[in-house]
Design a protein that fits this description.
By secondary structure, this protein is an alpha/beta fold. It has 5 helices and 5 strands; from the N terminus they run βααβαβαββα. It has a 5-stranded parallel beta sheet with strand order 2-1-3-4-5, with helices on both faces. The chain is globular and about 35 Å long.
């Protein structure tokens, strides 16, 4: 099984950015934890991070035929990126939406996800463990 993990905008600043909300682990540390669990689950995983919406759409398009599942944290694009939602809908493979924080317990504008309706599921609010839960879900879903 092959899984692509896409980290969205500003996630390259994890560990520094609002540690009270996002924790103290860096993106490199999170990717290492994902890679270790993937190894334990016998999953081939690739992680990427993009700040631009178009690059995320390109990654989603490139996942067709190359990956069995995508785990995506769209960051702020969650709330208004219809191009990402359309790409998820178009690629024909399961996509799991992930959030480090519980978006439904935050500011009003963060409480809507335009990508959730086209995803296989959403996991959020468990800190960086949200990614690990999503990887486990991918292992069971595929």
């Amino acid at each position: 099984m092959r899984v692509l993990v896409i980290h969205g905008p500003n996630l390259n600043l994890l560990g520094e950015r609002e540690p009270g909300v996002y924790g103290t682990q860096t993106l490199a540390q999170i990717d290492a934890r994902i890679a270790q669990l993937a190894k334990d689950l016998q999953i081939d995983v690739r992680s990427v991070q993009h700040n631009s919406e178009g690059a995320i759409v390109d990654e989603l398009h490139g996942a067709r035929g190359a990956y069995d599942c995508v785990i995506v944290n769209p960051g702020a694009y969650t709330h208004y990126a219809f191009a990402i939602a359309d790409a998820i809908s178009a690629i024909g493979i399961p996509v799991i939406e992930v959030h480090v924080s519980n978006i439904f317990a935050r500011e009003e504008f963060r409480r809507k996800s335009v990508v959730a309706p086209v995803c296989a599921g959403t996991i959020g609010g468990f800190g960086v463990d949200s990614y690990l839960l999503a990887l486990r879900a991918a292992a069971h879903k595929i």
